[in-house]
Design brief:
The chain folds into two domains: 80 residues, no CATH class; 178 residues, Glycogen Phosphorylase B (Rossmann fold, 3-Layer(aba) Sandwich), CATH 3.40.50.2000. Helix content is 35%, strand content 16%. It contains eleven helices and nine strands. The strands form two sheets. It has a five-stranded parallel sheet, sandwiched between helices. The chain has a four-stranded parallel sheet with strand order 3-2-1-4. Helix 1 packs parallel to helix 10 and helix 5 packs across helix 9. The N and C termini lie far apart (56 Å). The C terminus is likely disordered.
């Protein structure tokens, strides 16, 4: 693709695009000019992470047959994955994670540590509005109750709110978390990225929060239902696409209780390790 321009545009949602975003630096190396058309909420994050790509807000209905291409060659985000990783496994490219706003992350961490001294700072997202298996991938607030009993954890609310969804999905759990009004987790993804980087751990279901944590290289635990999306595979606790993520899987369809019990046990181990460091 030398001496040619490549136009990459987002076919799916934010989460799918984030999985491909780790490959963009490699595309910059392979083409003379890279134009990336994506959700405008991602542009500040990508601008910090890419050396020279031209970033364009996603135009209304993207359709390669009707919208004029912006480069000599064009590809969807999924097309990039098929080109650079045809076996649907991540290629071995040393591109590194996306770059968050380090100054803002440091400021948020300082604020949280001052407000919650000695606590393990754990971000939590439990719901997805995805039309594809959204209900199966979401955890009911009642199922999260054992998490909130962890004595040395302060949970930070990362859950984006969809005005079209009933508040019953949010409010019962929200009472156990700290929600930072300075961060808009739905419309300011650059701010959300900094917030996630300020935490010790992110726990999330399979939604765009999981994809963002993985793309940033933030330590994260992903709660998966029994038949997860292809990117997570069917077994094991490691993610081929995101080395910083650990996967917790349902043993039976709809059994979030077993998943939460396993997460609580692992959290207790982390809390014990923190206590040992503090008393050493």
């Amino acid at each position: 693709m030398d001496e040619e321009s490549l136009h990459v545009w987002a076919l799916e949602g934010v989460g799918d695009f984030l999985m491909m975003a780790r490959l963009l630096p490699e595309l910059e190396n392979r083409t003379d000019r890279l134009i990336v058309e994506c959700d405008e909420r991602l542009i500040p994050l990508l601008r910090r992470s890419l050396a020279s790509a031209e970033l364009v807000p996603l135009r209304s209905q993207v359709d390669g047959d009707t919208l004029p291409p912006l480069g000599d060659l064009q590809s969807t985000d999924r097309g990039v994955i098929r080109h650079l990783s045809p076996d649907l496994h991540p290629v071995e490219l040393d591109t590194g994670p996306l770059q968050h706003d380090q100054a803002r992350a440091a400021g948020l961490r300082k604020k949280y540590q001052k407000r919650f001294p000695g606590q393990l700072l754990v971000g939590l997202s439990w719901y997805t509005t995805s039309a594809a298996q959204g209900r199966a991938r979401s955890v009911l607030p009642a199922d999260l109750e054992p998490l909130f009993a962890q004595p040395q954890c302060q949970f930070i609310d990362l859950q984006y709110r969809d005005p079209a969804q009933a508040m019953e999905h949010y409010e019962p759990a929200a009472g156990h978390l700290f929600r930072d009004d300075e961060v808009d987790s739905r419309d300011n993804l650059d701010g959300l990225a900094a917030q996630m980087a300020a935490l010790d751990l992110v726990i999330t279901v399979d939604n765009s929060t999981a994809q963002l944590a993985g793309a940033l290289g933030v330590p994260g635990w992903v709660l998966l239902h029994q038949l997860p999306d292809w990117r997570w595979g069917l077994r094991g606790d490691a993610s081929e696409w995101y080395p910083s993520l650990r996967l917790f899987r349902q043993a039976a369809q709809g059994d979030w209780q077993g998943v939460i019990e396993q997460v609580c046990a692992e959290l207790q181990a982390k809390e014990d390790a923190v206590s040992l460091r503090c008393t050493a």
